[in-house]
Amino acid sequence: MPGFEVIGSEEQAEINDIFARGGVLFRHGFDALRNDCYKVREFETAFAAYMKVPHALAVTSGTAALRVALAALDLLPGDEVITQSFTFVATAEAIIEARAVPVCCEVDATLNMDPADLERRITPRTRAVIAVHMLGTPARLREISAICDRHNLALIEDAAWGCGGSLDGRALGAWGRMGTFSFDFAKTMTTGEGGMIVFSDKRDYERAAAWHDHGHENNPAVPRWEDTRSGSGFNYRMNELQGAVGLAQLKKLDDVVRRQRTNRDALWRAIADLPGVIGRDVPAGSHETADALVFETASAQVASDTRAALVASGLSTKILPEAVTWHFAGTWSHMPELVAKHGDLSKAFPATQARLARCVSLPITVKMDESTPAKMRRAIQSVVG
Q: DSSP letter at 235?
């Protein structure tokens, strides 16, 4: 979560550069005024190079990234998109906004998509799969990719928490047909609000780029107000201020992830030997972003008591257990599309519900106080012995 922790002179310099070179804040046009200053374009190029993919498109949020990625698939009403039941609510919202049917599957010990349950839920109407790297741990992409290939399904990675992570040396977000990222204020890198989509296919990129800009094809042969279009869309354009911050943050990303991993490992060493504390399952070959330290306890009551002890010690938890209603599909009865597909949501995902109830998640920061591991151990030990 620490992108905001490292905001400093580098971000300020990139923003100042915009105003020194004409002050154009819109990403397109006004060429005569901007002195070749295109921060969003630079950010997209740098991000694509970092991810080792051919195309990247900056948008206004991680939610927008999901919605625009789905628009590139040309889904029809009634098409099904499968995601996991433990994810932020935006994943399902984007599917619904795309006029598709949201289908959720159970998670396994990684707290990510259970490949076996994914395959059980595929129907003739399934068009795509959105695999989420929850809290920075890679999903089982080898298995999920094979299933998507076998059934001819588009794989989209929701890498909102995965920016800077990898599996088998391949960046999270670059395994699927498309990968989406969030740069909100609490993510590993931030533009305040913002997001990015990466693409392996040029046609997907071109469709998404037009759709996120009211259908503009940005034909270089004509002025923008005479631009061509082949369809409609909406406005999800990133502005130049966000692009400037993103450029500076991207240069810090690897160091941020390294420091997060160091601090996460220090916290885990402090509690790994405590009775009933079980670490999250991590696929072999993973390079996690270490957004959080997640562990499982003996029961829901122990998890609740553990959180209370941590809070009483001046520490905090993240999502599990206190914010699970925003991150578990079993609580989203306000979504009629999800209810129509799954029925009583409180009973729809029993394995995920039971597992999440036993889990505790601790936020990882770059600037962790050196006393935190020992303080955390004392708090948890007071509950588990």
A: B
CA distance 75 to 56: 21
CA 180: distance to chain centroid?
Answer: 7
- Which residues does 183 contact at the CB level (< 8 Å), separation at least 6? 3, 62, 163, 189, 190, 191, 192, 193, 194, 195, 196, 242, 246, 249
222 and 271 both lie in a single domain: no
Measure the CA–CA gap between 223 and 30, rounded to whole angstroms. 10
CATH number, domain containing residue 315:
3.90.1150.10
Instruction: Calculate the CA dihedral of residues 156, 151, 210, 230 and round it to 10 degrees.
Output: -170
Confidence (pTM):
0.96
Q: How far apart are CA 100 and CA 337, in angstroms?
A: 9
User: Does residue 337 have a pLDDT over 90?
Assistant: yes
* Eight-state DSSP code of residue 168: T
Please give the C-alpha separations between residue 183 and each of 163, 197, 237, 253, 295, in angstroms, as whole numbers. 9, 11, 14, 12, 26
Q: Which amino acid is at 312?
A: A
Q: Per-residue b/e over 174-194, b at no fewer than 16 CB within 10 Å?
A: bbbbbbbbbbbeebbbbbebb
| Token pair 């991207």 in the structure block, residue | 250
Q: Which residue has the tokens 């100042």?
A: 16
Q: Name the β-bridge partners of 107.
A: 113
pLDDT one-digit tens code per residue, 50-104: 999 999 999 999 999 999 999 999 999 999 999 999 999 999 999 999 999 999 9
3-class secondary-structure state, position 98: coil
CA 378 to chain CA centroid, nearest Å: 32
Same domain for 216 and 277?
no
Are residues 347 and 216 part of one domain?
A: no
d(CA 317, CA 224): 48
CA-CA distances (angstroms) from residue 52 to 10, 198, 382? 24, 10, 47
Residues for the chain: how many in total?
Answer: 385
Look up the domain containing 286 and give its range: 254-384
Residues 262, 214 within the same domain: no
Residues 185 and 331 in one domain: no
Burial string for 292-323 (b: 16+ CB within 10 Å, else e) reads bbbbbbeeeebbbbbbebbeeeebebbbbbee
What distances in angstroms separate CA 16 from CA 11, 23, 240, 249, 385, one per listed residue? 9, 9, 11, 15, 54
If asked whether residues 209 and 259 sit together in one domain, one would say no
